[in-house]
C-alpha cells in the first residue's frame, strides 16, 4: 500500500457492504461480474484511496454457490486487467465460493456434533441422577423422598427356596 494503509484487514469501512450499494454491493445483488479499466474516472466510496494508491483497474466477481451469494471477490490493481483476467477471476470466484460453502457446511456439522454430544451428556446425567424404583422414574424432591422411605422399609428379597424351620 502506497498510503501505508493495510490491505489485509477484515474490519473497517468495507468489512460489510449492503446489497445494491456501491460497486461491490451491486455486484452481489446483480450476481454479475464487473470490469472497470479506468477506476480514476468512476465514483468510489473512497475515491481518495483509489487515487492515492494509483489504482488503474478493478474487477469484481460475485461468489455464488447453489444460488446463494456468499460475497464478492474484488480486485483493485495498479496495472491494467483485461477480459482474460476477468474470466480467470470468474473461475477463481467459483472455486472460492465452493470452498467457502464447504467450510460453512463443515462448521455447521461440527456445531451440530458438539450440540448432540452436549445433549447426550445432559441426558446421561439426568438418567444417572434420576431415582429409579421398579417402573417409577422421577426427579422431584417429594417423589425421591417417598421412594427413599419405601426403599428403607421394603422387605429384603429372600431366596426362592425356604429352609424348613427346626421344630
Give a quick rundown of the structure.
Helices cover 45% and strands 17% of the residues.
Verbal overview:
By secondary structure, the chain is an alpha+beta fold. A 3-stranded antiparallel β-sheet has the order 1-2-3, with helices on both faces. The protein has a two-stranded antiparallel ribbon with strand order 4-5. The radius of gyration is 34 Å and the shape is rod-shaped. It contains 4 helices and 5 strands; from the N terminus they run αβαββαββα. The model has no long low-confidence stretch (mean pLDDT 80). The relative contact order is 0.08. It has helices at residues 22-30, 47-52, 83-129, 141-153; strands at 34-36, 57-65, 68-77, 131-133, 136-138. Helix content is 45%, strand content 17%.
Distance between the termini: 109 Å
Radius of gyration over all CA atoms, rounded:
34 Å
Unreliable segments (pLDDT under 50, ≥5 consecutive)? none
Oligomer description: single chain
> Largest beta sheet, briefly?
3 strands, antiparallel
Number of helices: 4
Q: Tell me, rounded to a whole number, the average pLDDT.
A: 80
What's the number of extended β-strand segments? 5
General form: rod-shaped
Please list the strands of the largest sheet in the order they lie side by side: 1-2-3
Which H/E pattern describes the elements?
Answer: HEHEEHEEH
Strand-residue fraction?
A: 15-25%
Structural class: alpha+beta
Task: Specify the helix fraction band.
Answer: 40-55%
Amino acid at each position: 500500500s502506497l498510503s501505508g494503509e493495510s490491505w489485509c484487514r477484515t474490519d473497517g469501512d468495507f468489512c460489510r457492504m449492503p446489497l445494491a450499494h456501491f460497486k461491490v454491493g451491486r455486484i452481489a445483488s446483480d450476481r454479475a461480474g464487473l470490469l472497470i479499466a479506468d477506476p480514476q474516472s468512476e465514483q468510489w466510496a473512497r475515491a481518495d484511496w483509489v487515487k492515492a494508491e494509483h489504482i488503474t483497474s478493478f474487477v469484481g466477481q460475485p461468489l455464488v454457490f447453489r444460488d446463494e451469494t456468499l460475497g464478492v471477490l474484488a480486485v483493485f490493481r495498479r496495472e491494467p486487467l483485461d477480459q482474460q483476467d476477468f474470466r480467470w477471476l470468474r473461475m477463481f470466484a467459483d472455486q472460492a465460493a465452493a470452498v467457502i460453502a464447504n467450510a460453512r457446511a463443515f462448521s455447521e456439522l461440527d456445531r451440530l456434533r458438539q450440540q448432540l454430544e452436549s445433549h447426550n451428556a445432559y441426558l446421561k446425567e439426568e438418567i444417572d441422577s434420576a431415582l429409579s424404583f421398579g417402573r417409577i422414574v422421577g426427579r422431584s424432591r417429594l417423589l425421591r423422598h417417598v421412594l427413599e422411605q419405601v426403599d428403607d422399609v421394603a422387605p429384603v428379597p429372600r431366596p426362592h427356596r425356604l429352609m424348613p424351620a427346626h421344630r
